[in-house]
Write a structure and sequence with these properties.
By secondary structure, the protein is mostly helical. The protein has 16 helices and no strands. The protein has two domains: 197 residues, MFS general substrate transporter like domains (Growth Hormone, Chain: A, Up-down Bundle); 195 residues, Up-down Bundle (Growth Hormone, Chain: A), CATH 1.20.1250. Helix 2 crosses helix 16 and helix 5 packs antiparallel against helix 6.
């Protein structure tokens, strides 16, 4: 029985002549914005609106769920309608959700209402990921796919800077101007929604219409059986237990830090934080941090290509764990220098970007073989789960033991990163050019 896979585009006979530069950068920029809004901007917003760290970490970690279960509805995207249509629908829904946050943030039940819109945005964003990656394969030749792989990654990173840096800084400046955090964030989300809807309109006219992009002629029962066989075969892969341990534990320290770091930067000195303004967080974490993350990721990819995965692994394990110690230093000394704080955050994020390369390379390695597209989707589901579960308890843990002790616990838990890395099995020359 044929495994569930994206069909090859090698047989394409009719292809749009529209220049890929007109839509690939904007498509992947648009892909990143809802994700960063849900995962990062929502954390900062709720902190400025007065929620506790425990509430923020728990509620926003649940928003990872659409990415955890994304592989289970990817066949629906494949079966029903074109990828182009799915892209447009999900972009419209994300824009509407952003507008919904803007309109309800000052309402009496703002928490329930904004969370509902964030859930809509999260499901739309996860579905957009499926459709955009499939559309990329349909609309471009193999040569163009290789040519634009770096471009799509670059513009996705730019969206991270735009979201975590520019939008958070904008909200911070509006907070200072309006002296009303709810209104400031409402204006920020209103502007974001407007720009995102403009992007949707642009893509409505600009996205090409490749002849292979359409619903697949596959009986639903056959598709279900193929998916079930693919799902079972994933858990029958050699060394599945050690692979799952690696997927779930390699980023455990970072999963805890991701939810708490922006709260630590915002909290007052008396509460153990650094008392940065919202705009300063946009600069420190959303700009300097993302730049460090991007550079680290680029260098990590080059390093693996030069020396192979196995020889690179332990340097990358060290890179993703040891810089976490900067948070202990920051929590102990509580410096006021933006330059020093930025340097520490940039260093930690650089290490994370460099070390995270090992994680992504392993996922690609483990997904090799028959049904590699679907198996890679399962791997990314476990990747999202590895961030969701620790994030749900991060706020409770931090509020119970304080920031300094929390960061010490994070450093202790880096031992699990080393242990899970020692358990995996990879071919000696994998990843080496």
């Amino acid at each position: 029985m044929k495994r569930y896979e994206h069909p090859s585009n090698e047989s394409t006979t009719v292809r749009s002549s529209r220049n890929a530069w007109s839509w690939v950068p904007t498509l992947y920029f648009a892909e990143g914005i809802p994700y960063v809004v849900v995962m990062t901007i929502a954390v900062v917003m709720y902190k400025r609106l007065g929620l506790s760290n425990e509430q923020i970490a728990l509620y926003t970690s649940w928003l990872y769920l659409p990415w955890v279960i994304k592989p289970f509805w990817s066949p629906i995207v494949e079966l029903l309608g074109s990828k182009r249509r799915w892209i447009l629908i999900t972009q419209l829904l994300s824009g509407v959700a952003m507008g919904g946050v803007a309109l309800t943030i000052e309402a009496p039940y703002y928490l329930q209402l904004t969370l509902a819109f964030f859930w809509l945005m999260a499901f739309s964003s996860a579905t957009h990921d499926i459709a955009a990656d499939g559309f990329y394969l349909y609309a471009l030749s193999e040569h163009e796919q290789s040519q634009f792989v770096g471009i799509r990654s670059t513009f996705y990173r730019i969206s991270m800077i735009a979201g975590q840096g520019i939008l958070i800084a904008l909200a911070g400046n509006l907070e200072a101007f309006t002296r009303n955090p709810s209104r400031a964030w409402g204006i920020t989300f209103g502007l974001t929604a407007t720009l995102y809807i403009v992007t949707f309109i642009y893509h409505y006219f600009i996205l090409p219409r490749p002849n292979t992009d359409g619903p697949r002629e596959v009986p639903r029962s056959e598709l279900f059986n193929d998916f079930l066989d693919t799902f079972i075969s994933f858990f029958q892969k050699p060394h599945i237990l050690s692979a799952l341990a690696f997927m779930l534990l390699f980023r455990l320290p970072e999963a805890l830090l991701t939810k708490i770091c922006p709260l630590f930067l915002l909290d007052g000195v008396d509460d153990g934080g650094l008392a940065l303004t919202t705009a300063e967080v946009g600069l420190v974490q959303g700009t300097i941090g993302v730049i460090g993350l991007t550079i680290g990721g680029i260098l990590g990819g080059l390093y693996v290509a030069q020396f192979g995965f196995k020889k690179s692994l332990w340097l990358m394990v060290g890179a993703i764990t040891i810089p976490d110690a900067v948070y202990i230093i920051l929590a102990y000394w509580q410096p006021t220098s933006i330059a020093l704080i930025s340097t520490c955050i940039g260093l930690e994020q650089f290490g994370y970007g460099f070390g995270f390369t090992a994680y992504m390379v392993f996922l690609m390695y483990f997904a090799q073989g028959e049904a590699k597209t679907a198996h890679y989707a399962f791997c990314t589901g476990f990747m999202a789960l590895s961030m969701m579960l620790p994030g749900m308890v991060a706020g409770y843990l931090q509020e119970t033991i304080g920031y300094l002790n929390f960061f010490i616990v994070v450093m202790v838990l880096t031992v699990l990163t080393f242990i899970s890395s020692a358990l995996i099995r990879v071919d000696d020359n994998y990843g080496k050019k």
